[in-house]
Design a protein that fits this description.
Number of strands: 0
Number of helices: 8
Largest sheet: none
Radius of gyration: 27 Å
């Protein structure tokens, strides 16, 4: 009695009735190649010299977004993430728009309509960047300078040095982003006057949010 024939090994492709291999079982590399080509073209059109340089930045930003929105982040607190939550809460966003809008209208002479568009646009950009950049910059501080101060002087995480750094850093990040957007979108120059006006407008906005952290509500 003859034994039944063994099935073909799993790594082989089953032949069709005509004896040819089924091409549907082979992976098609064309969609992947098209996607890579599209990414390269987009980066080249954006003026990126080496597309590979975009990958680490994307991974870092994606990782930070995942971290800051995960349940684990709720148990990890440092000064920058507290200030970021306060700055980008609705009451302080509205207060910041009003304060900065008045400063831009008076010192830049844009007119009311352009001032409103200018104010909303640059603040939207600074919010999108700052919601990640401010906590990340604060976390970098805590990783080395803050940790060194804690070990040397036995400070806690919420010490005067960390709070001062957080305040200055928040003004620097939001002001820089708004300055770049003002330059790229509205063709506002980078003279000493414009730099002072934009950073100066961010100072009271951040200061109000910062001071509110230390005001007792009882």
């Amino acid at each position: 009695m003859l034994a039944a024939p063994l099935p073909p090994p799993p790594h082989r492709i089953r032949p069709l009735a005509g004896g040819t291999a089924d091409p549907k079982h082979r992976p098609d590399a064309k969609p992947v190649a098209a996607a890579v080509a599209t990414l390269l073209a987009a980066c080249e059109g954006a003026g990126v010299p080496e597309c590979v340089k975009c990958i680490p930045t994307f991974c870092v930003v994606a990782g930070l977004i995942v971290f800051f929105t995960s349940p684990a982040a709720a148990n990890v607190v440092w000064p920058a993430i507290i200030l970021e939550n306060r700055i980008f809460s609705t009451p302080f966003i509205l207060a910041g728009l009003a304060i900065e809008g008045g400063i831009y209208f008076y010192f830049l002479g844009l007119g009311w309509r352009k001032t409103i568009l200018f104010d909303v646009t640059i603040n939207l950009a600074s919010a999108l960047v700052g919601v990640i950049a401010i906590p990340a910059a604060g976390l970098l501080w805590e990783a080395f300078p803050g940790a060194l101060m804690i070990s040397l002087f036995h400070y806690g995480t919420f010490n005067a040095f960390s709070w001062t750094y957080t305040f200055v850093m928040a003004i620097g990040i939001t002001g820089f982003v708004e300055l770049v957007v003002a330059r790229k979108v509205f063709r506002i120059g980078w003279s000493r006057r414009e730099v002072i006006v934009i950073f100066g407008a961010n100072f009271p906005s951040v200061l109000i949010a910062f001071a509110s952290l230390f005001i007792s509500t009882r």
